[in-house]
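Can't paste images in this forum, so I'm doing it all in text. The chain is below; anyone willing to post the predicted structure tokens underneath?
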Amino acid sequence: MSVELKLLVWSTALALIQMVIAVFAAIAQVGLSPLVGNRENLPTLNGWAGRAQRAHRNMLESLVIFAPLVAQFTGKANAATALGAQLFFWARHAYAPVYLVGVPWLRSTFWGVSLIGLLQILFQLL
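Text version of the structure:
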């Protein structure tokens, strides 16, 4: 399996971990009963629970871009695509805990690095 595909698998695992953290944070803040219903009129999650939810959503938004890029470069894997996948994965790996702790500029920096990784892969496909 290529580096890029391995990191796609690990990125998916990271998204699942972020989902579990966001769910437990929401349960801690609003309780289980409101979350198992239709989720209408839920209070806004704030603090680390809100950040966990937003970090997870942001990961899903990025993963939707990352996965097709990795899938489309069949036969085009090279050092640049491997580096792009590594930049994406490790920056996203660092992004979540930094977001949960609430460090805004560092969070944005890691997001930017993950974007550079995506662009690195994309430019190899063009």
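The chain has one domain: 3-125. Helices lie at 3-30, 32-36, 47-72, 79-101, 104-125.
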